[in-house]
Batch of 4 targets.
Target 1
Amino acid sequence: MIINNIDRVDDITPEEFRKNYYLPRKPVVISAAGLSQQSPAYSKWTWDYFKRIVGDKKVGVYNNERAGANTLVNGADDYITFGEYIDMVKKGPVQLRIFLFNIFQHAPQLVQDVVWPDQYAKGFLKKYPMLFVGGAGSVAHMHYDIDMSHIFHTQFIGRKRVLLLENSQSPYIYRMPFTVESAASFVNWHEKLDEEQYPALAHAKGLTTILDHGDTLFMPGGYWHHMEYMDGGFAMSLRALDDLAGKLNGLYHIVGLRGINNLMIKLAPQWWYHKKRELAYQRAEKTLADLTI
């Protein structure tokens, strides 16, 4: 792959952000000093704090295995209490993660801990901030968010290695039809990628960074992302709706693509599992062939 670092800024005005990142749809990391330190959550949110207020809530946990033929979109591998999960993470490496956990539904008082970056974007879904939690070694495999929203992703506790690709890179990373997933594996991508089995990966253009406590990643709608938890930690994603075209694209993904994919998984799981991968290979091969013309 062709890899560059994601831009980092310590501080940025709304005008600079809009001109250099929001309108060009370019990712950027805003340091804690530039954004998240303004929020009480920066110092207040800890494992013990969360365990005390929402430790009894049931959450879905996900392992590092790629989805199998019979796995519906967003199907959890197990359900345990958040407190039990936190205890596991604190004891040592655990390759389990939680995603799309709307902690505010269970503890509305947490809203007071968050300062929304309204100066940078409009259309925030303030009823749907999502917590993403992972133990050291857990992985969020390469995908892009199905609703196509812009994301402000702030890391709390621990470090996370991030790989991003613009959506136009989809053919190079073997995007499977009717999904927001790649057929290729990106686990430990910074050490080695299987470019022998997936030759188009050599031409993909990615961006990377390591998020630390307080770093906020702006990820434009539709960006592919693969995240590996270097330490146990958690992050909050604040979602902002895109323009009208982006909203319609998100609706198409949620209602159309996801609906068809889940239907096919129910009707012909094994055939569909292999067919998606076959089509991903064919599209990647055509893309490579076009490069030589």
Target 2
Amino acid sequence: MDRLTNTIRPYAWGSTTAIAELVGAEPTGEPQAEMWMGAHPGAPSRTGRGALNEVIDADPERELGKDAAAKFGPRLPFLLKLLAAGAPLSLQVHPDLAQAKEGFADEERRGVPIDAPNRNYKDANHKPELICALTPFDGLCGFRPPAETADLLEALEVDSLKPYVDLLRAQPEEAALREVLTAVLTADREQMAETVTEVTAAAQRLGGAYEPYAGIAHHYPGDPGVIAAMLLNHVRLQPGEALFLGAGVPHAYLDGLGVEIMANSDNVLRCGLTPKHVDVPELLRIVRFEATDPGVLRPEASPSGEEVYDTPIDEFRLSRFVLPEGTAPHDLTAATPQILLCTAGSVRAGELALTPGQSAFVPAGEKAEVSGGGTVFRATVVA
């Protein structure tokens, strides 16, 4: 079992206090957005044996287990994070596996540099993800029914929104959502900025259901993504609740601290709330234009005390243990690789003492027990 030393990413949208408070450190005054735990080459965790990606590369079958290495290849198939949003992240979607392979191959054929700002596909993998709240956590997830969005927009009493309201009421669901999102993202930028300014003032005046969108507009004045965001369901997670975000589902995180796990990919198609590249035609190819319930997940408890967040993919499996002080050790030995993350109290993982924000990598087949008084998240795969 290896204690992990992890990198904190200082993205501008990150909270200046949330991660520091969790780990019991003084805030630096700078944003701390994500703490990465895993073997992603962009910021691999470090162990006493070296960088985790290099440790795995040296002997994939030993570190990952024979079945996981055969199923997912010689790399850790997930990335675990602490995510601390102090401002909204970009509104985005992720491709499915076939779309990612096709998009990556196309950009490779066209010679688009891997680090080019207009590059959509950094790899050939999909990027399903799960966010589990540690504090109250606000986000946007999936389209709400068009009729509900029409009512929401109409009540703002902004004349330039009327064509969108009419489309949402007149067209079938898929066509309505597609046409409105396309119109918003391809509208004249100056005219759209004026619309967003009017919408912001109205949302601030009305409050209530409009508060999340007024907050988004505060951070991204004039951005078409403010109107695009109003097409989506607003969700507030309570601690312990989670969201699974599959391919094609538009989403954004707005505020809060959570544990995030995803397939080991960096493929993102953005549709607003960002100064980065927005490829509208490719985005429209990837988005699933259907109204969806956000589907808030609550963990399913097992007799062993493990609480599992059930998802439909195999690249990751996230669970947690809430351990009362003095309980007998839980045996977590498995034939798959694991990362253990403490988020509350103090726990022992094998010979390692873990406090909030500390984590450990457990190679496949290595004996692993957890005990103590606290909360520990367990990330592994389904092999």
Target 3
Amino acid sequence: MTSMGKTRRMMSVGMIGAALTLTLAAPARAGETPAAATDRNAAGWELTPTGTDARFRGLAPVDRRTAWAAGSKGTVLRTTDGGRSWRDVSPPGAGELEFRDVEAFDARRAVVLAIGEGEASRVLRTEDGGATWTESFRNTDPRAFYDCMTFFDRRHGLAMSDPVDGKYRILSTRDGGRSWEVLPNAGMPDALSGEAGFAASGQCLVSAGSRDVWLATGGGATARVLHSADRGLTWTATVSPIPAGDPARGVFGLAFRDRTHGIAVGGDYRKDQPSPRAGAVTGDGGRTWRASATPPPAYRSGVAWLPHSGNAALAVGPTGTDLTTDGGRTWRTVDTGSYDTVDCTADGSCWAAGEKGRIARLSVRKGGPGTA
């Protein structure tokens, strides 16, 4: 691609991010619901036909055309036409597995994580678009329960388990998920009593750059975020302002725009419980966290930065989608649909997924059908 072509592409992607931010941020009219305001301003989630009732908590969009989703009943879907159609590429015999995370490198290569105690926690990999799958890891320790995974690049990745012998267990790959090894835990701080990760959105373990990774916790006396700058060998733990103190409360999702700017969301996932202070932000790589001045109004499990928009991000949960345009300090609801996870791509597309087979794409409409 010529330098002029690259410049034009970046301008186009930047304009997409700016358009999404501006249209979603437009205020509702008197008496108008946030969802109606979103429709009026020609931007919002556009559901795509999946043909399944699986619950998708794992989501990995690659670009504007290609995305993967992983969920309950061993279900894995893939689209290569921007969500107009989805192909069921579930691994054979996986119906009893609960997939909660998926990481995709392109339209052919992806890695999925199944959660659960003991051998229910597994990692599978495909190199042919889901036509065939290879199991590359099966947990044999009954004390371990894997929750999330992340990749720094196409080769190096990590997965995390709830504490074993009082410390979080980290699994590492250096060959794109073909093989895995448990890292030594000498550099991992002790877990709090009752502390664990939440396999709610595939975002309890996230990375930025080539070496930095963050781990979200809850269930203990405080909700913490652990950070490693050496691909999981050594970690530091920081208390977040998101409430914990109960097995249902804590930090459920993280998103980092770069090595320093991050957002945490969470709360209490029980429907009958409030979730005050459900959002927090950091500007120093997670060394300190401060509560959002106007947090999301309810429990949120997923969060993603809008591409090339500076300070805009989306947070999702069972009761709606919220938008921030100031880096997570203040949020407002822009949609009331139910989603568990959200992610955006470098070329300007955003996707969300959740219960009852719901997978949606953020769409900007200009007097006609959406074309995000």
Target 4
Amino acid sequence: MSYGGPQWPQEPHQPDGSPGHDPYGGQQYGTGQQGGSQGAPYGQSQSQGQPGYGYPQGQPGYGYPQTHGQGQPAYGYPPAQQHAPGQQPAFGGHDDGTPDWSALAEASEARQRRKRWLVAGGGVLATAAIATLVAVAVVSTNEDSPARAGGATGSSATTVPGGAELPTGGTGPQPSFSSVAPPPPPNPMDFISTAAKDKAPLTAEGLFPGKKLTFGDRVYTKGATSSTTNCASAGKGGLGPVLENHGCTRVIRATYTRDGVAITVGVALFADQGTALKAKEGARGGVAPLAGSGVGDFCRATVCLRRSNALGRYAYFTQAGFTSGKKVTQSDTAVFKTSDDLASFTFNQIYARGRAQASAAATAPADGQ
């Protein structure tokens, strides 16, 4: 029987069964009888048959599993176990005490596979159980719903936990909803399209605030401003009579400069949107350039860029050119960019008036409240 430990060496023999080379360097141990020769190998008997001090013949050995008596092992060693041909020794090892690592690895892998299958199977069973419980709860809820219970018993109340009942009939107070839709928010154009609703204060500083105008990455310096009710004086080249003929009540002007280009913006007020549009379409000439506050005369006896537009009851006009008196051509992109920027700024300022008045009207309390 093997315990997986080292095996004691057996006595070396030659193939013919005779003792072989001594593994301990050739020195032999043992003492012969008197008159006998020394050096009997491994305790073999001398002439009178007495054993030497090596391996006693027929006696229990000191460490080597020999039997004596009724076949009992000597000094605690178990009897040698015989294996049938081809049979593996016990405890998964070999006769030389080496464990069968391949068999151990296969057994461990089999245990791991069984564990994984058990975990996966448990998860599937848990999911199925939860789904079953949910389905049962849904069915139970549908069967015990207040609608079915009331229909079957004719009751007009719904039972809630604690024994209380909620009335389901029409005897209790019911929410009420107005059938009148709330009014839409005011339109800013409504306030800047007619003088009857456009009541907010209007000044040159309010329409063109500050000392500079930043538009994108371009900064314009504000020059002189003007506000007059003499609309004809604010026009040039035929624009004055057009403003008066359409009932202009006021003209506000402001001048801006940047990199040798100057522009004057004029905003004319009319009674309503219709007359302002007509004045814009019939415009001839342009707004008179406004000098002062560091800006000299420009656009006089030379070619400048003139434009006009209208928004609500406001018509606005621009005239841009070089401060040096140079004529403006189609290739002078700086003049066109300046005209575009100031026209967009004026449009936004006029529309902001309508938006502010619409917001104030939406938050104002209703009459009588």
